[in-house]
Amino acid sequence: MRFILCSLAVLGLAACDASIPDSNPGVGFDSYADQRQKQAARDVALAGQGQPLAAPMAVSEEQLGYTSTNSATSYGTEETEAERLAAATAAALNSGEQPIDATPLNPAPQVALGPSGISTENDFEDVSTLRSIESDAQKIEQNRAQYEVVQPTDLPTRPGNTGPNIVNYALSTTNPVGQQMYSRFAASEGRAKRNCAKYMSPDQAQAAFLQKGGPQKDRLGVDPDGDGYACSWNPAPFRKVSGG
């Protein structure tokens, strides 16, 4: 009984409540049609035209098919370019000649060989047409006429002031290098090496040695062993040339 009385009281209050007019629902509560109309009016105002801007085109959701024509064209272009590059490379490497086929079934290339016959100079038949016995005899006579025998003459005399002649000295001696022929006092090998270093060659040392009284006197100290030869000078080459 108490529950029924409470329910009746609530229904009475609801009937007494007046409906509130929907004068301004607020921002964000416009209908979809009103929003489209306002957007169209705004587009017209911005564009300055009497008609609204065209609605954007709808994007199709269909999947694009594979265009085989473009792919085939691109593939053909790449293949043509590759063939052109291959031909240019082959022409540069082979200088216009075709490359050798090195397959096992291909026969070996022919190698150009030179003439295997005898030369023209040794061919009797060929030479006989160019030369004869009479022409050869004539050439021999011409060579004999041009032949000249040079008679030997005396050797030129040496100038008077040339110093000692080491060649004549070498031919006038017979003892080998190292055999003592002259006495030496207080000879020193070290002193001889220092004195020999002053000369450009053993020949110059021997000439100076003879000019200073050698071999009897070793004033320069270049013949410590007393063999008559200064600074390792050797008369053997001069003797060999003269046949001694």
SSE order and pairing:
Blueprint: H1 2-16, H2 32-47, H3 68-94, H4 124-130, H5 133-146, H6 166-172, H7 189-196, H8 202-211, H9 236-242
Average pLDDT across residues? 76
State the end-to-end CA separation.
174 Å
Unreliably modeled segments: none
User: Percent helix among the residues?
Assistant: 40-55%
- Count of helical regions: 9
What is the H/E string? HHHHHHHHH
Write down the oligomeric state.
single chain
Protein name: Excalibur calcium-binding domain-containing protein
Organism: Thalassovita gelatinovora
Structure commentary:
The chain has 244 residues and is an all-alpha fold. It has a domain at 166-242. It contains nine helices and no strands. It comes from Thalassovita gelatinovora (Thalassobius gelatinovorus). This is Excalibur calcium-binding domain-containing protein.
Provide a short characterization of the protein structure:
The protein is mainly alpha-helical.
